[in-house]
Design goal:
Elements (H helix, E strand, L loop, with lengths): L7 E4 L3 H12 L4 E4 L8 H4 L3 E2 L16 H6 L5 E3 L4 H13 L3 H15 L2 H11 L6 E2 L3 E5 L5 H13 L5 E4 H7 L9 E5 L3 E3 L2 H14 L3 E3 L4 E7 L2 E6 L2 E5 L2 E3 L5 H9 L5 E11 L10 E3 L4 E6 L2 E10 L9 H10 L13 E10 L5 E5 L2 E5 L5 H16 L18
Parallel strand pairs: 1-2, 1-14, 2-10, 4-18, 6-16, 14-21
Antiparallel strand pairs: 3-9, 5-9, 6-8, 7-8, 11-12, 12-13, 15-18, 15-19, 16-17, 17-18, 20-21
Length: 415
Amino acid sequence: MSTPNFDLHIIGGGIIGLVTAVILQARGVKVALLEANEVGQGASFGNAGHIAPEHVFPIADASMLRHIPAMLLNPTGPLRIDWRYLPRLTPWAIQLLMNMRPEPFARIHQALLSLNNNCLPAWLDFAHQWHLDDWIKVKGALLTVEKTSSLDPLKSHGRRLNDVGVANELLTKERLLEHEPALKDNQLAALFFPGTGHITNLTAVINQLSITFRQLGGHIIEHCRVFEAKTNVEGIHLTTNQGDIIASKVMLSAGAHSKTLAKQLTGVTVPLDTERGYHLMLPHESARLQMPVTSLDRRFVMTPMQEGLRLAGTVEYAGLEAPANMQRAHILLQHAQPMLKTPLNSVDSVPWMGFRPSTSDSLPVIDNIERVFLNFGHQHLGLTQAVVSAQIIAAYYFDEAHAIDPKPYQLARFT
C-alpha cells in the first residue's frame, strides 16, 4: 500500500480518532486516519448525543447489584446477557465487580471527575474554532423518575453530585413540566443539570470535522481494516486489507475493536469488552422535547435532534460477532410512550445497534508508550470526553505539561 510520508497513523475514525486527528494536524503533525468502515459511522454515529460531564461515577455501582436479577428476567428491561457469550464475558465481569469495592470505586470516581470537569468548556471552544456551533446546544438535561420509591434515590444522587461540584437542581413535578411540557404528569420529579450539552446532528459534526481535517492536509483512508500491528526496526508494521503500511508512530482509537491491537502493540491485555447499545430514531419527532430526558426508572434517554427524536439506551452483552437484536431498539418506543402526554409518531423509525468500548474500571486508556499512543475505552462517554482526551494525547505528543494528572488513564494500571 503506497501512502505519503506521515508522522502519525491513527487507527480508528470515530469521534475520538477524528477529534484527535484535527487537533494534531492543526498543530503541524502529518496525520493519516485509517478507518475500517466509514468515518464516524460506529458508536460515534449512534450514541445519545450527550456531552454529559455529570456522569462522574463508574458504570458499575454495588447498589445496582440487587436489581440485576430483575433486569435480566425482564424481556423489555435495560440489561440483557447472551448466555452463550458468558464464558468470554466472565473474566471482565469479575474485574468489574472487584472495582465496585469502596477503594477502587472512589478512585475511579475521582478520575472521571477530573476528566469530565472541563469536558463542556473544551467542547465549546473546539466547536467554535472548527465551526460546529450550529449543532451544539447547552440547554441542560433532565433525569426523571415516575416511581414513588425512586424519589429518595433521586434526591440522594442530586446531593451527592452537588457535593462534588456537579451542579444540579431538584425539580418538582410542576417545575419539571414547565421545562418540558410534553412530558406526562406521571413523571414525579427530576434533576436538572444546567451544565450539560447535546449535539443535534452527529452526522453534520462528523462531516464537518472530516472536511476540516482534509483541508488542514490530513489524509483519510476508509474501508481500511488493520488486522495486525507489530513494532520492528523500521517502525510499526500495519497489516491491512488494503496492503501493508510502515508507520513511524500510531495512535490506537478503534473503540471496542481495540483490545487485540493493543495487545500486539504493547504486550498488555486490556480488560475491555463491549456493551452493545441500541437506538430508535423517530424522524417526525424533532420538536417534541427541548433537551435530553433520561428516565432513572426505565434507564434510557430521549434526545431531540434535527433528524428526529433519538431513543437510546439499554445494555446488551453479546460480544462483537453476534447479530444485532433490533427488537431491543423497538422496545425503547414502549418505554417512551408512557412518559409523554400524546403518542409518538413512529412512522419511518430507524433502529440501530453499536458497540460501546467499556473497560472493567470504567476509565479510558489514554497513554503514550514510545511510538504508540492509546486513546480508547471511553464506555458511554466517548463523545463527552473526545476533546479532553485529544488534548491529553497532544500533551504527550509534544511533551508538554498535562492540564490534569494523566496517571489514572495510563496502561500501566493493567500490568
